[in-house]
Design a protein that fits this description.
single chain, alpha+beta, Aminopeptidase, seven-stranded mixed β-sheet, globular
Length: 161
């Protein structure tokens, strides 16, 4: 598997992953009916870096890294990761996380913060904890889960300095 910066030619393949992941309404805040043109602002904006992981020329996952806040808060990174549901269980999320930790350090960030991790997304919570992220806060009923209704969300953080 190879991780590389995404290019404009990857837009449609990243959209396929993005749309499949958000359509379930159980892990990301994006409306399941988000139109394709919105992918530009959510995943390919000028202030973020977008990466893809591919195997044999097939894109299996993607992540973004960006400053968590502007100006005086820009020393903390924020990342979002998506794996094609058909490719789960292959360790892709782990590889994306490991890669993002290296990129974050290279870019001079001193930490990574996830602002909203859905508490019922147990696989993600377990993975982030495995890589040293800690739950530093909980937002009660912070996410409107498509099947479960309102569920808590976590703010997770890892110091990388």
């Amino acid at each position: 598997m190879n991780i590389r910066k995404a290019t404009e030619t990857d837009f449609d393949k990243v959209w396929e992953i993005f749309s499949k992941v958000i359509e379930t309404g159980d892990t990301y805040v994006f409306n399941p009916n988000t139109p394709k043109q919105d992918l530009q602002k959510h995943w390919f904006a000028s202030y973020m870096e977008t990466y893809v992981i591919e195997e044999n020329g097939i894109i299996l996952g993607t992540y973004i890294i960006k400053p968590n806040q502007i100006d005086l808060g820009s020393h903390i990174a924020n990342c979002s990761y998506m794996v094609n549901p058909n490719a789960q269980g292959k360790g892709i999320g782990k590889k994306l996380c490991e890669h993002s930790l290296v990129v974050a350090k290279e870019r001079g960030y001193i930490g990574i913060q996830f602002n909203i991790v859905v508490s019922t997304n147990e696989g993600a919570v377990r993975l982030w904890k495995k890589y040293g992220f800690e739950i530093i806060g909980t937002t009660p009923n912070g996410f409107k889960h498509a099947k479960l209704g309102f569920v808590d969300t976590y703010i997770m953080y890892k110091n990388i300095s």
